[in-house]
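The record is passed on directly below:
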Amino acid sequence: MPDRPLLAFLWTLLLLTSSAHSWAAELTLEQAQRVFPSAETVTPLNGKAPAYSVRSARKNLGYAFTTNELAPISAYSGKPINTVVALGEDGLIKAVEILHHEEPILVLGLSDADMKAFIDQFVGKKTTDRIRVGAHGREGYIGIDGISGATITTMVLTSSVNKSVHRVAQAYGIPRSSTPAMPGMSDAPTLILAEEIPAWQFMWENRAVELIVVSLALLLLLAILFFQDWLVEHTVLFHRLRVGYLLFTVFFIGYYCSAQLSVINLLAFFHSIGGGFSWDTLLMAPVVFLLWAFVAISIILWGRGVYCGWLCPFGAAQDLISKLANRLGFEGYRIPPRVHERLWAIKYFILIALVGLSLDSMVNAAKLAEVEPFKTVFILHFMREPIFAIYALGLLALSAVNSKFYCKYLCPLGAGLSFVTRFRIFDWLRRRNQCGKPCQSCAHQCQIAAIKPTGEIIDNECHYCLECQVTYWDQHRCPPLAEKRKKRENREKKARGVIASDS
């Protein structure tokens, strides 16, 4: 099992990414030709903002600049999306092209046509426009359509283009006034723009209903955790509540909110720490941010099992399939303990490989991160290449035979979260002296096989489903309690027999 030295090793590797890449550089003619095909010369402007005058053989074409030089904003991958923007002397955006990015969704999941359709929406917008994804009809803003499943990517790209255009326009007075100031002159007219609402605040306002519903669900989960001893004694109520919560997790958090957490989130977070941390980017996905905040708290208090057992949509889907299979009479197959313990290591090897690949490129890491079927199921809704859909469906079907197979053996996110579990504060999962010595009832029932033959719960692997606690308090399922109950019943029978004979 991975220990603290491995955790320290992973942390060190991630911090080293701060110096891994640097893309800010002077604009080349080749790059300028991406947005001005007839460009022949590129001349830097000697002003307050790094921009370039672009000419053809016959005339001035306009201005070109890169967002990495003017407004680098960390995106979903934890690194900026570098684009080249063409701005005409009339103050209109002529073209936008992506020069470099490491966004997973742009590599695997989106077509070139999707991205071109999104970028083309910038063309024709003015320097004074405040462009915002999804702001259609909002006063003071020009709305453009986002891309489903790529919210953070499109919002960061939009914000970066917006800020770059405004900065260049203000520095050089674009569009020119009737007494045009020469490029680079300090007396260029200043464009005054009203204060913008931060992009993340706009998203929080738009998704207020989702945030309220998820917040209430998280409060309910906290109540379940704090009153778990009472709840698990009421078996029927607990099981109905748990199934209902799992259904909510799959269909509301997963399908409706598309808020399945991913190992890419973890990698991007650590990369952003190394390369320029920004709360704004994290806040652009409100429900995901709320879930990560809850995970950060719950993992310290109870361990990673709270997320894996209650809030992971793919994990919840597997759990529900397993429960349905049991109801229909299918007996699950339990992998032999020695094999099971060795299969556990796979997800840690995947995590290490992901960290290593991400040091070179998040694009490469994203390709390996396809071991997570989350994007296929909850973002793209199986609408992608057959191999990905078959893989995701296969894992779901496999859970009917071996419960939560993916979670136990393949999930790098679970592996990453398990490190922090070592520092949890509470240990509320009760055990008896007889657990494992000789009683194996809970161990046989645990769908994750996270209970040792000696009776101890393996905290790094436990999904906090509380089924062992249901057994712990059940006088018919827990052998030590069942033995006490039988002795008590026998004493009561004898007492009744004595009373009957005396009467």
